[in-house]
């Protein structure tokens, strides 16, 4: 069978060995319809390319665009893409002849001939000048060069997908860092307001005690609530600054280069319209990591053909022309011209099984890439379903805590009125104040969680790379 294939390839002036790649289908059971697509606040409309604009925040828009142009992780991915393109150019060069020009001068001294050195004979000294041109061309009889070009082209496409995946991550992480800074600012403001309320309660309790109403324990317990509220403020302030430092680095700036507009943000951004999520098919077609995994699989399948071609003979056409003479002035005369031409057939005959082992290695690598592709598809669906579920939970939790905060605020106000009128004791006032503080803090956290859940959903949907700006190039530190 192998001899017949060899004869056919020689007769047909070339064939391509190895399997022909066909894009795989999604793993069985991968639904086109997202299970969580029916939650409130989402729509099956297609995801826009710049999803962050749904937050209606010009500062966020500017920061994301800046990060997409200057982020250092993106610059690394862009450099990897440039390298992959250069490797493809090298692989394509395998279809062209290789040429070599040479120029040589040699001076040779030989002992005298036809007699002894003592008879007065002199050594023979000669000069020789040579100009040469050598060319070789590997005949791609079995498609090894073709398969290597296919693999390199798939590597380029996988590298491009990795750049797009980095864009998705950078856009989402920039939005998350900005939202975190805004959320911590909002939580800090709530903590400061709570501190002010507790300070007024403490002042009232202290004045009543000094006027002969209440006990010293009431004053001490009121002071505890005041200091607990006060202790929250520096924590939120520190976290806000930490988020701003992370935001600066994401946009390609030193941490100290804080963005002034982000520093002034006081409330987390929200997508105010129903969030477009599309469907499962659009998700898999959009996610760059799925595309990168599929292209990596295609490259590895092509490399099976590269390894298989090494089982067969290699045919190279060789040619050389030279001009050589003992005197430089004789270069170019008809007597100085020489040439050689002819084919070279070489075959690393696979007696030791190494070539076949390389084929099996390539097949195993392709099988691993197929499993990786299936895993990426399933994770893409998993991450999206989880993000939708968490967004639904965060939205409903915020709605419930909004009602709880309003109720606790009203209860604390009534308790304060009743306490000053002597109808409620201090413990009742203390409980109402504590409930109000907890409800306000929980609501501020819930709002931060909903903003983060929206951003996580957009990241899982895999958009944001389609119309991203080019990565800003940087000059190498060379002279």
Protein traits:
10 helices, two-stranded parallel sheet, alpha+beta, disordered N terminus, 479 residues, four-stranded antiparallel β-sheet, Outer membrane efflux proteins (OEP)
Report on the structure:
The structure is a single chain. With 479 residues, the protein is of the alpha+beta class. It has a domain of 309 residues: Outer membrane efflux proteins (OEP). The chain is built from ten helices and six strands. The strands form two sheets. Strands 2-3-5-6 form a four-stranded antiparallel sheet, with no helix packed on it. Strands 1-4 form a two-stranded parallel ribbon. α2 packs antiparallel against α4, α5 packs parallel to α10 and α8 packs antiparallel against α9. It is elongated and about 140 Å long. The N terminus is likely disordered.
CATH architecture of the domain at 17-94 and 142-197 and 239-311 and 360-461: Up-down Bundle
In what order do the strands lie side by side in the largest sheet? 2-3-5-6
Low-confidence stretches: 1-13
Strand content: 5-15%
Question: What is the averaged pLDDT score?
Answer: 88
Largest sheet: 4 strands, antiparallel
> Which class of secondary structure composition applies to the elements?
alpha+beta
Radius of gyration: 38 Å
Helix-strand pattern: HEHHEEHHHEHHEEHH
| Spatial gap, N to C terminus | 60 Å
CATH top level of the domain at 17-94 and 142-197 and 239-311 and 360-461? Mainly Alpha
The CATH homologous superfamily of the domain at 17-94 and 142-197 and 239-311 and 360-461 corresponds to Outer membrane efflux proteins (OEP)
SS element count, helices: 10
CATH topology annotation of the domain at 17-94 and 142-197 and 239-311 and 360-461: Outer membrane efflux proteins (OEP)
